Amino acid sequence: MQLIFLGSGSAFTVGDDNFQSNMLLVSPNGRRLLIDCGSDIRFSLRKCGFKYGDVTDIYISHLHADHVGGMEFMGFSTKFDPRCSRPKLHLCEDLVAPLWERTLSGGMRSLQGKLATLETYFDVQPVKPNGSFGWEGITFQTFSTIHILDGEMEVPSYGLFFEFDGLKATITTDTQFCLDRLWPYYERSNAIFHDCETTPFKSTVHAHYEELKVLPPEIKRKMWLYHYQPGHRPDAVADGFAGFVQPGQSFNRDILKACLEG
Hints:
- The structure is a single chain.
- The strands form 3 sheets. A 7-stranded mixed β-sheet has the order 8-5-4-3-2-1-16. It has a 7-stranded mixed β-sheet with strand order 9-10-11-12-13-14-15.
- It is built from 9 helices and 16 strands.
- β12 (about 165-170), α6 and β13 (about 190-195) form a beta-alpha-beta unit.
- The relative contact order is 0.14.
- It is α/β, with parallel strands linked by helices.
- The protein has a single domain (about 1-260), classed as Ribonuclease Z/Hydroxyacylglutathione hydrolase-like (Metallo-beta-lactamase, Chain A, 4-Layer Sandwich), CATH 3.60.15.
């Protein structure tokens, strides 16, 4: 099993040297799970040697454009290519209707001679909030993160915890620094892929490097940082982290184990 970071940058990363933080999990059987599908996905897939037809499954964590902005591209491309089947779409139940009604239907509802639904383009597989789904023998546990509090509600956003090839991994997707939610996953994981702001000015909706830096050494040493902004980055290794994820970087059991043992 191989986890490839198609990009490792923030929502507003610009240029062909990095892309938004979407990932591709590749199984030995040739199935490929895209973890989030941002607006630059057509470019980041190509840069890593993939195309839309290679994606068999998609997981969506929440509805910001760097996580769903490429769904129209994926939906239209696979629907009108007879070589493609509908990608399976895994997402928590409270995201299904908003994804279609608030994000995709404006451009995708009207087809020549008929009206479309989300199921026209994707094989929708709803997941109970904080529930789980299976893929290629792996059970993915979703867990709610605190990303945006809009004054009315906690806007749904979900990370992933899963085990592959004997290693336990957490991908936070997007989250504030909230130890009460995240600490159990920090402790259980052999590898943590954590979104991390690096700008001088905190947005308050992502964990910031200075916040993560105070974590205990035993947590930081297994934590890879991604979703960072262009420009200067601190020396994460010197500060006790596993490092900053580089665009196109690939992880498997042997690589992660070597990092832990090193």
